[in-house]
């Protein structure tokens, strides 16, 4: 399990290189072939028993920001890469660019805001400790990424940290490769780019592989916050992997969905059905691009797309158990 290490690596959409190199180093000696395509997707192949292709994917990128301007007072204007509510980022530590310059996100103090003045990315800035534009330009440049600062911590059966969406999925794929399973299908483990900015990497990746079936591994919102009624809970921590029947833009293949449920029940693996359809995944892009029947299986997590996500390690372990059984069986 590589959750803590992967969480702490900066890998905002479009800047996944450090994540990709970490993963490649871990798996390169355990696969039959490995390559990086023109977009930056990392594709690792392991031979199976039959000449049918399974693509199992997770996205490497995380939500974050990009520097859009350097102000005269040395502060940085930023714009989001991916879906982030600006209210959750105020006062949070970030790192900027390849030099990982430390900064803090700030905005107009709440007590000075008038009426229902809205927090937006137009009026928040990153403070990197400079007071002049020229001083800031010596450290960063327009177009640099801005990532939440590393903060991963393990607390017994819990882990918190940034970017668990979808470094949880990446860690699972690494573990599945290292387990050296007796794979049924010729299996392509795809670590894809830019999911958070519009599912950009998975389509070309699937077009290259041309899989017969696909499984997307995600880290999904749980919604089991104390203030939420049960009816609003998409899934809950501690209740096992989340099998998705449908989400925005795609109804998951019914055969794959039923097969995953059957494997979980036959092996007494706790699981849950995702109860809301908000949000989308690479499964939609793969299905649209190649006509491939696809399924999403996820680890539930609180507070995704924020500086600190929370994940239950038992959910991770049970997701691994379910996937390790699915990959050695004939599905379609």
From TrEMBL:
<dbReference type="Pfam" id="PF05343">
    <property type="entry name" value="Peptidase_M42"/>
</dbReference>
<feature type="binding site">
    <location>
        <position position="59"/>
    </location>
    <ligand>
        <name>Zn(2+) 1</name>
    </ligand>
</feature>
<dbReference type="GO" id="GO:0004177">
    <property type="term" value="F:aminopeptidase activity"/>
</dbReference>
<feature type="binding site">
    <location>
        <position position="196"/>
    </location>
    <ligand>
        <name>Zn(2+) 2</name>
    </ligand>
</feature>
<feature type="binding site">
    <location>
        <position position="165"/>
    </location>
    <ligand>
        <name>Zn(2+) 2</name>
    </ligand>
</feature>
<feature type="binding site">
    <location>
        <position position="218"/>
    </location>
    <ligand>
        <name>Zn(2+) 1</name>
    </ligand>
</feature>
<dbReference type="InterPro" id="IPR008007">
    <property type="entry name" value="Peptidase_M42"/>
</dbReference>
<feature type="binding site">
    <location>
        <position position="165"/>
    </location>
    <ligand>
        <name>Zn(2+) 1</name>
    </ligand>
</feature>
<dbReference type="InterPro" id="IPR023367">
    <property type="entry name" value="Peptidase_M42_dom2"/>
</dbReference>
<keyword id="KW-0479">Metal-binding</keyword>
<protein>
    <submittedName>
        <fullName>M42 family peptidase</fullName>
    </submittedName>
</protein>
<dbReference type="GO" id="GO:0006508">
    <property type="term" value="P:proteolysis"/>
</dbReference>
<feature type="binding site">
    <location>
        <position position="305"/>
    </location>
    <ligand>
        <name>Zn(2+) 2</name>
    </ligand>
</feature>
<keyword id="KW-0031">Aminopeptidase</keyword>
<keyword id="KW-0645">Protease</keyword>
<dbReference type="GO" id="GO:0046872">
    <property type="term" value="F:metal ion binding"/>
</dbReference>
<feature type="active site" description="Proton acceptor">
    <location>
        <position position="195"/>
    </location>
</feature>
<keyword id="KW-0378">Hydrolase</keyword>
<comment type="similarity">
    <text>Belongs to the peptidase M42 family.</text>
</comment>
<dbReference type="InterPro" id="IPR051464">
    <property type="entry name" value="Peptidase_M42_aminopept"/>
</dbReference>
